[in-house]
Amino acid sequence: MTRITGKTRILFILGDPVAHIIGSALLNEHFAERGIDAAVSPLHVVPEDLPRALDTLRRLRNVAGFGVTIPHKIVVIELLDSIGERGRQVGAVNFVRRNPDGTLHGDNVDGLGFVGGLLEAGVAIRGARVLQAGAGGAGRAIAFAMAEAGAAELTIANRSPDKARELAEAVARAYPACRTRAGRDDPSACDIAINTTSLGMKTGDALPLPAERLGPAAIAAEVVMTPEVTPFLAAAAARGCRTVAGKAMLLAQLRAASDLVGLA
């Protein structure tokens, strides 16, 4: 168990709810394995309390920073002092560094982590046809990252078509070599099907994509980390598809998040 003292750098992961969060445990293992004197805990912050929570964190001098998860990744931006290039491009932040003067600098390592997790699992992204469910905070980061990694086609399906179109247009402007569009949630012709929504986190959630239309050669990937095998991944596996769990993304994020807060 990590020994926490007055010298230990403290981090939090802000979300609502927090029962599903496993990133704190993995970050604690990451720090312990590398002999870094830091400790992480989830912090349950409801949306209306987010401004007050950040105001408090600014004043806590042994806080190194904090992660940001659902539903705060987009709204937190207006509460920060500065944002990195990826966070600005994506329009969402998932990790924040507290500077010695109490200012807060945020950036987004969701996309880096997701792509890193796929590559570590042996998934070829370059030239792939990708279908993505979701255009929220994680979805924005992953869409940009998949295009940057060389996906040939990216179709974004979202319950709000306008939001999907706005994201598709932004990705197309940034990475014109990737044919990006908003479209239907039909995975029959895709090589990689990605769930970037929270569907699958709660018992009884609908599937984010119709898994029964996946081809057996397709790869299904998740951002939901708890449960580790979501109904979407289970349905895809039953079709003969390879699957990549949300935990793979988180493990690949650890180094980038540690670098951001100065605890590499």
UniProtKB/TrEMBL annotation:
Checking CDD domains in the record gives: NAD_bind_Shikimate_DH
Pfam families per UniProt: Shikimate_DH (PF01488), Shikimate_dh_N (PF08501)
Q: In which pathway does it act?
A: Metabolic intermediate biosynthesis; chorismate biosynthesis; chorismate from D-erythrose 4-phosphate and phosphoenolpyruvate: step 4/7
Instruction: Provide one Gene Ontology biological process annotation.
Output: chorismate biosynthetic process
Which keywords, in A-to-Z order, does the entry hold? Answer: Amino-acid biosynthesis, Aromatic amino acid biosynthesis, NADP, Oxidoreductase
Q: What class of enzyme is it?
A: oxidoreductase
Keyword Calcium present in the record's keywords: the answer is no
Q: Which residues form the Quinate/shikimate 5-dehydrogenase/glutamyl-tRNA reductase domain?
A: 125-197
- According to its UniProt record, which reaction does this protein catalyse? shikimate + NADP(+) = 3-dehydroshikimate + NADPH + H(+)
Which Gene3D superfamilies does the entry link to?
Leucine Dehydrogenase, chain A, domain 1, NAD(P)-binding Rossmann-like Domain
Any single GO molecular-function term of the entry would be:
NADP binding
Query: Which cellular component terms (GO) are annotated to the entry?
Result: cytosol
> Which E.C. number(s) belong to this protein?
1.1.1.25
Q: Which residues form the Shikimate dehydrogenase substrate binding N-terminal domain?
A: 13-96
Please indicate if the UniProt record lists Oxidoreductase as a keyword: yes
Query: Could you identify this protein by its name?
Result: shikimate dehydrogenase (NADP(+))
Give the source species. Bosea psychrotolerans
